[in-house]
Amino acid sequence: MARTQAARREAAEQRLLDAAIRLISERGIKGTTLGDVGEAAGYSSGLTAHHYKTKSGLLTAVTAEIHRRFRQALASADMPEAGLPRLLATVDVYLAVKDVSSARALALIQKEALTQQSEYRGILRKFNRASVDGIVAQIQAGIERGEIRRDVNALAEASLMLAAMRGSRAQWLQLGDKVDLAKVAKELKDHLKRSLAPS
User: What is the pTM of this model?
Assistant: First the structure.
């Protein structure tokens, strides 16, 4: 019985998160209410508040779910083990944008979190730190493997790489076919190979 209840709860939460991501990508954060999410998921309007309490609680869970989906995409992409090859493969996975709703929802959450008094600023800190730390780890692995020069500032390079990927994806979300993400990915990978290469 306990396992059945836990499975039902997990399924309900997944449907709520799927609905929240879809609605945020379509309507934005302000245009999405907790009640809307519950109804879009096929439940009562109050179920979202029951699970996540507040909109901030929901957005925290949404951000974690988007991060989980990206980690899953990396895991299923037959990635190189570590170092520079893994960094380059990460660019391909990030800019393939197979989950457009998640990409758009995350961009909207990031935009809202930029305002000085936004209640959502704290939501992205853990997510951003995890993203940067993952890139830093691969840069450090590349240094140890002799693929990346030793004088690289790993944190600065990781921040630049993440900004380039996010910025390119944001332009694509706004401009569509006017931005060729495959070409952007190639140029970014070529730039990384040139800028990180050992002397």
Answer: 0.87
